[in-house]
């Protein structure tokens, strides 16, 4: 039985295909269209899922959509009416997309996919909850979902047991921890629904001097509930989410690209502290209410890995599962699992341990691409490639690492990664100036062998999806200057031989040379672009940046050898057809 899940029309559209309850394929639309956070109907992601399974839509038994558009529209209309006539410009700006796309999902599915069969619509937070619980290794667990807003819900919790789940309680719009965080993200000059993790990184440099003041804007209570003071919010502006009062009390907002001042850093720190405390209070309440020791979380706020680490430490749970696409793109997976288990009553047998659910490319395809474009390369044995790549990283070269199937979710986890030497004291600056061009306050993440990670990091559980921060051990911080954040933490990926044997073998090779089983692992993309998907995307990114070597499967390309290749005339066999 095949179930196709779809999420789209807000941000990060995606598709997931299940076969008999196992994920065959899952990917974000942005990876194919190369438009970051693409929210269009994910026709390319769906096409990929079907090709991966070797089927057509005729073989699909059920299609699920990750939210209930009419219910969401009700909230949108309610808000418009509440703020009328001031809301008129927003109303006029938003209505066309509601009337032509968002309320016409069944029609779009029929037209674009030729689908006439069964469709299931579930609530946004049910999708989040299902995406968190059903692929988890737990037979029974508490579930907590927290985001900006779905239809009306902004947070929910309940319990999953076997192939069923139930959300007991919810918090509703306009009270929202996610919208509070996003509002201040926008005020600080960063992109809403995109750059929240930058604010999280910035927070580490500040002091929570605005903590009390900010509690006037957002208050949380011991039972985990919370309240936004609406005097500080403006949900009816096209440009911003904060009100004139917020600006009066917190000062002029930072424009994108302007210098980040101490004031902004301290605001980020105060905001992050409130978010962490609210999440811990909420999770603690969920633990008491459910009496369970395992927690599954999803929703955009569950991507805040600093808050996640505090929940694991302080909320009374023994284990936490956050699947890699915990934000809205994970909704396609959530609705697919919900339809299969909860609606159709099928039993669970699948655990999402490997995040490598995107497209993969054979050595023959890569060789053909390199030859068609006359790109000089060396082809080595797998062992030869591993040894050579480890030597390149040891010699402080920046390596583009393209292997196997692409990761599911926003993090590069060792298949579409840029790798570098974490022991080089200036590697963060080198990576930033030559490749990533990121804000210099943002840390780079380490990847370490699972079995040796505890010698370098304080970890409570393995973290193959990079969803938790941890402390770098005091005695190791000087050894790993390029991955240790200002506050002594790191967002670690533990690399398990069973989950990613090739990446594990590479770090083992690196350890043989250096004695240290840790490398820098950052996503294979440049600022403003999605992570690379195909060998063509990888080569273009490599050619256009200061990456020194590109390692694709067993093929190694030296930057020095590609000066004659015209990037604009490359033959791309995967053009919108990956
Ligand atoms: Fe969401």
Share of residues in helices: 25-40%
Strand order of the largest sheet: 13-23-22-14-15-21-16-20
How many strands? 23
Low-confidence parts: none
Going by CATH, the homologous superfamily of the largest domain would be Carbamoyltransferase, C-terminal domain
Q: Report the CATH C-level class of the largest domain.
A: Alpha Beta
Ligand names: fe (ii) ion
Q: What is the typical, i.e. mean, pLDDT?
A: 95
> Which secondary-structure class do the elements indicate?
alpha/beta
Total helices: the number is: 18
The CATH topology annotation of the largest domain reads as DHBP synthase
Number of domains: 3
Biggest sheet statistics: 8 strands, mixed
Share of β-strand residues:
15-25%
Overall shape: it is: globular
Distance between the termini: 24 Å
- As a whole number of angstroms, the C-alpha radius of gyration is 23 Å
CATH architecture descriptor name of the largest domain: Alpha-Beta Complex
Task: Provide a quick synopsis of the model.
With 578 residues, the protein is of the alpha/beta class. Helix 3 runs antiparallel to helix 4, helix 6 crosses helix 13 and helix 7 (177-187) runs antiparallel to helix 11 (262-290).
Labels describing this entry:
single chain, 578 residues, alpha/beta, Nucleotidyltransferase, domain 5, DHBP synthase, 3 domains, 8-stranded mixed β-sheet, 5-stranded mixed β-sheet, 23 strands, 35% helix, binds fe (ii) ion
